[in-house]
Amino acid sequence: MPQTVDVSNLYISYYGKEVIKNVSFSLQTGKLVGILGPNGAGKSTLMKAMLNLIPRDGGEVTLGGQPLTSMRKKIAYVPQRSNIDWDFPIIVKDTVLLGTFPTLGLLRWPKKRDREWALECLRKVGMEQFMHNQIGELSGGQQQRVFLARALAQKAEYFFLDEPFVGIDVASETVIIDILKSLRDEGKTVFVVHHDLSKVESYFDDLILMDKELIGCGPVDDVFRPELMQEAYQIPFPMLGKLGVGM
SMART domains recorded for this chain (predicted)? Predict the structure, then answer.
């Protein structure tokens, strides 16, 4: 049987206010999955909760039938750019090299082959010419490419990206989505918190649609429908057409 990513009865609250309520879903691995919903819907919270980056009030998450604790080295996470300290004094090639650390083992330092692999990951995202730049000197799109290269350097099986396309140039977005599709084609599983509804059908295989609760989950054609999108976004049917949702 195909492996799955399973979330069961997930509850999250901040200061006593419930932000995710009883979310459960099961999706096959090897898919490119978009997480959609209006502002404040809990999209980023869901991703962080799936990775145990924030405490849960309840719920379980398994990846390929395995608990998260046993899958840490197989997971790569790219946070929102707004959550990264771009003034930190580190250059591009060393940022990507950090992606090799989870597989090195305790008290081991990167060797020549690890540095060569980090450089190859930079080449994949088209950023090798910036390897000696400080990360704070780069544009938003360039920064996002570097952090994707760091994720690639981990040789992960599961990739989680939180709003990777916000505030970046078209060329960088094209590079990033092409790489994510390539990862999917290699059998990797990719989750992306996303906001641009006009590109949903061309970017993703499956969708998770939520507004604090789960509204829809499954193949794009099953979820990206006017009645479900209206339930999530509270937008009248005519406006949904302008946002790229089929009528």
Answer: AAA
Domain spans, the chain: 1-71+157-170+185-247, 86-156
Asked if 197 contacts 44 with a C-beta cutoff of 8 angstroms, the reply is no
Amino acid in the structure at residue 120:
E
What is the rounded CA–CA span in Å between residue 49 and residue 16?
16
Extract long-range pairs of 213-221: CB within 8 Å, 24+ residues apart. 213/20, 213/21, 213/22, 213/23, 214/22, 214/23, 214/24, 214/25, 215/37, 217/25, 217/27, 218/27, 220/34
The mean per-residue pLDDT over the stretch 172-197 comes to 96
Residue 1: predicted pLDDT:
58
- Rounded CA-CA distance 194/208 in Å is 10
Output phi, psi for 70, to 5 deg: -90, 0
User: Quick one: pLDDT at residue 17?
Assistant: 87
CATH fold of the domain at 1-71+157-170+185-247? Rossmann fold (3.40.50)
pTM metric for this prediction: 0.91
Closest C-alpha among 218, 207, 177 to residue 36 = 207
Pick from 173, 90, 85: nearest CA to 135 = 90
Check: CB of residue 232 under 8 Å from CB of residue 41: yes
